[in-house]
Amino acid sequence: MRTLGVLLALVAAAGLPAPAQTPADDPSRIERPFAAGGKVRLDLSAGSYRVEGRQADTIVVRWTTKHADQKVQWKVETKGKEAWIELDGPHDNFRVDIQLPALSDLDLDLSAGELSIREITGSKNVSVWAGEISIEVGDSAKYRRVDAAVKFGEIDARPFNITKGGIFRSFKWDGQGGYNLRARLFAGELRLLR
After folding, report:
1. What DSSP string runs through 52-95?
2. Which of 17, 76, 78, 172 is the most exposed, fewest CB within 10 Å of its CB?
3. Is the separation of the CB atoms in 85 and 41 below 8 Å?
């Protein structure tokens, strides 16, 4: 510690910039540069996920687990206009926040859990085995094609004037917009919100 202090004093005396202080790496936070207008493919294990758009050209993934020693396997890669996010965490109390450029197309596959998608403008292809899914779609006029289905559960899609519950519930909707929305849920509740 004393040697580091002497070294910094010598650097300052010589008029050279001090070495940058970098905080310790956070193993539960990943950040990658990624420009708006691309496609993001997400392969997610069971958990609670919040996917949000923001006005920045980066992808940020953060997670928490019930116990600090629980392992999370992850991959976050970008190449040109495509990005890949893969997460495999513990089976209980695995919570993840994913921030993307607001203008992004999504191709998302979740085994089970809770999923919230907010403030993402673009086409969305969402497939979930079981859980509660909430997708903010905004103005229905933005969409060219909507295709949603739940085998066992409920669809609440008020922006498209649809509410259905029971077995093998689905709907298709055609408009004049530029985006497509496809949502598939085996069991649970699918909500499309304005």
Report:
1. EEESSSEEEEEEE-SSTT---EEEEEEETTEEEEEEE--SSS-E
2. 17
3. yes
The encoded tokens of residue 39 equal 């496609």
Rounded to the nearest 5°, which phi and psi values hold at 3? Answer: -65, -40
The count of domains in the chain is: 1
Residue 119, classed as helix, strand or coil, is: coil
Instruction: Say if 79 falls within a structural domain.
Output: yes
Range of the domain at 66: 28-193
Write out pLDDT tens, residues 35-88. Answer: 999 999 999 999 999 999 999 999 999 999 999 889 999 999 999 999 999 999
Distance CA 36, CA 100 (A): 8
Residues 167-178: tens digit of each pLDDT: 999 999 999 999
Interatomic CA distance for residues 76 and 60, integer angstroms:
9
Bridge partners for 104 per DSSP: 38
The whole-angstrom separation of Cα 96 and Cα 185 is: 20
Q: What is the pTM of this model?
A: 0.85
Contact present, 146 and 173 (Cβ < 8 Å):
yes
Q: Which tokens is 33 given?
A: 């540069």
Among positive and negative, which fits the CA dihedral 27, 28, 34, 39? positive
Residues 178 and 142 sit within 8 Å (Cβ to Cβ): yes
